[in-house]
Amino acid sequence: MSTGLAFKDYRKTDDAVMVADVGFKKQLRALDVELDIVWNGSKWEIWRFPGQGKRVKKVIDSRAVHVMTAQTRGRTFRELGADLLLNLQKGDLTKYSTKQICDYFDAMDDNIERAKAKEMENWFADRKKEFEWYGRGLRVSVPKRFLPGSIMLNGPTKEVKMRRAIANG
């Protein structure tokens, strides 16, 4: 399963462009705490860091092993998660316990729910911003004669009508 590449020669986990999805990292940690993920454009690379299971941020050392690379473009979280689980179990179906697999799928469901909630929040934020810009463009100052309580909206008062009637004879 190992490609034989040393991690330090191949990838860095602290590059700004190499930050993977946090939810998917949690999902992967539910399966095996020594696994970590590195993002490379449209591909996710799974690496094993032996002896660093407790650490959230894995430290690069000579024992890091490249496990697999997965294509992410055009795939949903569910498809990607199931594919990674199948590939990680390849050759040894007893590698992970039932509890680990259930935790993995629970984390996958949480990840999908989080992604859908984020998508909905973004949609509402876009509509709000669009409406604000539209409303900003519609602002026009209203002449005082058209404001509530003016003669134009309410019509002339009785006094004004009487003065006109007297003036016109």
What does this molecule look like?
- By secondary structure, the protein is mostly helical.
- The chain folds into two domains: 7-124, no CATH class; 141-169, no CATH class.
- The protein has six helices and three strands; from the N terminus they run ααβββαααα.
- A three-stranded antiparallel sheet has the order 1-2-3, covered by helices on one side.
- β1 and β2 (43-48) form a beta hairpin.
- α3 (77-88) packs antiparallel against α4 (98-138).
- The mean pLDDT is 76.
Order of helices and strands: HHEEEHHHH
Count the helices. How many? 6
Flag low-confidence runs: none
Strand residue percentage:
5-15%
Euclidean distance between termini CA atoms: 108 Å
Number of E-state strands? 3
Strand order of the largest sheet: 1-2-3
What best-fitting shape do the alpha-carbon axes yield?
rod-shaped
Structural class, please? mainly alpha
Gyration radius from CA atoms, angstroms: 32 Å
The structural domain count equals: 2
Residues in helices, as a percent range: 40-55%
Largest sheet: 3 strands, antiparallel
What does the average pLDDT come to? 76
